[in-house]
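User: Hey, my collaborator sent me this sequence without any context and asked if I could get a structure. I don't really work with proteins. Can you help?
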Amino acid sequence: MSNPRRKMINDPDALIEDLIEGMVSAHPKHLCVQGETGRAIVALNGPRDGKVGVVVGGGSGHEPAFAGYVGRGLADAAPLGNIFASPSPSQIMDAGFAADGGAGVLFLYGNYTGDVMNFGMAEEGLAESGITARSFVVTDDIASAPIEKLHERRGIAGDFFVFKVAGAAADLGLNMEEVEDAARRANDATRTMGVALSACTMPQTGKANFELPPGEMEIGMGIHGEPGVERGPAASADEVADKLLAPILEELSLDNLSRVAVLVNGLGSTSLLELYILHRRVAQVLGAHGVDIHMSWVGEFCTSLDMEGASITVMKLDDDLHKWLDHPCETPALSVGAPQTETHGEVTTQRAQKIAKTKRTVDRSALKSGGPITPEVFRSLMIAGVRTVEAERDHLNELDGAIGDGDHGLTMEMGWKAVQKVLNATDAAATITELCDEIAEAFLETVGASAGPLYSSGFRAAGDAVADRLNLDAEASVRWLEGMANGIGTRGGASVGQKTMVDAWAPAAEAARQELENGGDAQACISAAAQAAAAGAQATKDMQSQMGRSKKLGARSVGHVDPGAESAALLLKSWAEVTF
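Assistant: No problem. I've predicted the 3D structure and written it out in structure-token form, which is a compact way to encode the shape of the chain:
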């Protein structure tokens, strides 16, 4: 990895809070913050009674996306996640409450595993409060999957056009089905290809996500700092534009009767000089095909922190898409047309609501107490996990940088720091199941990325599996491990062999069960689980990823240990080293 790169930040743990304060203070006429989480950015003049609420969102690090598109005529609210990580369900729900005008709320976001999980859970939460919420995922990235698997593609800079169209449709008073259909039509008509000349650097570490030697470029990378699907020699601006445009032209079937909108997007460290040179070639190529460019945007609209590189997005227009694209909007990052004087519905009052959290009632007198793992011992196991994740953070980041976005160590550290706070704050008399509930909530609300829902579901299921116990004996310890594996597997939908953390958790649970059947005690069962998890994690090195962001790399994912499986193995190793 390269030497650390300096960043103008304060406390890394307060990075997003500082970002939000800065955005709102810079745009006080457009933005405010609503909700208890402090992560929902809301348009001061956006949400209105009778209008479909439009919520866009995702991780931070893509500025001006996503909060930069909050404002009249576009998005009503945007929840901000951590760097390259989805917002949590409660953060998304805060945005949903604020955007709700009684006609339902449409969530729009890129097609990433963590976003799909967290926004889906927020839909469920809003439904419990009587609010209809739906999700629409953007899938504009050609490089991330073949056309026959379009539904698996990532959403990258094409978010810009899909958000704009959906926001306009809602602002014009269309109903939920019509707004969702407008988003679908925009998505179907939009294609993107990108190129990176350098990796981005995580602000918390100052280290590059992956190594890209001078003279080479990555084709088809995502917007989370992950490597591309192809590496090749760096080329001239015209050659790059031609390479990126070729599949766009083919998939959109552009001809001399076509009208399009064009976005030449910088990824964070690319000069406008370079972007305009790229647009020059885009205009030449489209003109040679007889394609009319209705409107172009050139600049930074969906970045990847400080990555050097650019993407080209083209949306093929019909009359409706043309109209919605031209519809006035006023946001910090995008203004189109003159401000509207006609309104469709009255401005809503603040609708943010407190999200009720229920705690289970435990009858301690009915719990079984036999077994060496007391609640106190369980706490010591969890603290051992905290220490291990802190020590292995950089190692996990490096593994993730090879096939992902380079932040798995940071993500896990964030979650386990929250676990430590929970353990320090929770009553000493809390049972193991109650502690699992608190840990599950900490992961869900702190991490946001796919690891948040996965570990939250794992701990919740593990706690349920031993809800009849005060202390854990060998059999209960195995049930607890099986609950972790089942909860994670069920939430993520992964199975063994797909190069995920399940490749460590599933064999760990199986080995623990086998050790129990052979007469092993609780310590032996956990040790067997740790050994199996280590072997399972190592086995992922020879697998081609079939899930998550690394799936887009295809054969390039082979030869690298999955970071989620490795962190699971390290956690189990730390628990096996605790004597009880």
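In plain terms: The mean pLDDT is 92. You can pass these tokens on to your collaborator as they are.
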